[in-house]
Amino acid sequence: MHGRGETQVRAGAETDLTALTDLYNHYVRETAITFDTEPFSPAQRRPWLLSHPKDGPHRLLVAQGGDGTLLGYATSGPFRTKGAYATSVETSVYCAPEATGRGVGTLLYGALFAALADEDVHRAYAGIAQPNEASARLHARFAFRHIGTFAQVGRKFDRYWDVAWYQKDLR
Ligand SMILES: CC(C)(COP(=O)(O)OP(=O)(O)OC[C@H]1O[C@@H](n2cnc3c(N)ncnc32)[C@H](O)[C@@H]1OP(=O)(O)O)[C@@H](O)C(=O)NCCC(=O)NCCS
Predict the structure, then answer these.
(1) Whose CA is nearest to atom 24 of ligand 1?
(2) What pTM does this model have?
(3) What's the CA gap between 43 and 14, in Å, rounded?
(4) Any idea what the CATH number is for the domain that residue 56 is in?
(5) Which of 9, 80, 96, 146 is a Cys-bridge partner for 111, taking CB atoms 3.0 to 4.6 Å apart?
């Protein structure tokens, strides 16, 4: 575990499923940060959770407050499914809405990339729906660089949204 104050970062577990689903559903319902448009039930979200084992390139890390509250999570997952893409991952990070702007995202990404350091991962990619200053700054802090923008690639809440893609070179 990695701690900062009372906040602990650890691998996500099935016992986190409901809290993880609730946190994500907030962004599904309220924002275009994710392009999912329908909220998930915990059961629907379970395959996603199980697709992140405790080792290997595809990880799920959670940040937990001293009182046990889920403060956020970070993941690495397949970038695309064809075999040659196996050395690339897509990463994402979500803090609970009341836990943003106080270092939780930095803590999670720090732990995620520390965990990936010994894995056969060469590139990490993140797609950031525009605008998202906090996410752009977090990714810049972790040496992601902007490599291009897909203009109006998604439609949510009756309007189109751009996604800026960022790349981080791992090894
Ligand atoms: C994006 C997110 C993960 C960043 O995590 P965080 O814990 O809020 O950020 P931190 O406190 O670790 O700060 C990281 C950087 O973001 C900046 N930042 C944080 N909140 C900010 C805000 N509201 N506006 C502008 N910059 C902000 C910090 O100043 C810091 O920048 P620096 O490294 O240049 O000093 C978090 O805000 C979040 O979950 N947002 C909603 C979901 C989301 O957008 N996820 C990313 C999808 S691509």
Answers:
(1) 134
(2) 0.96
(3) 11
(4) 3.40.630.30
(5) 9
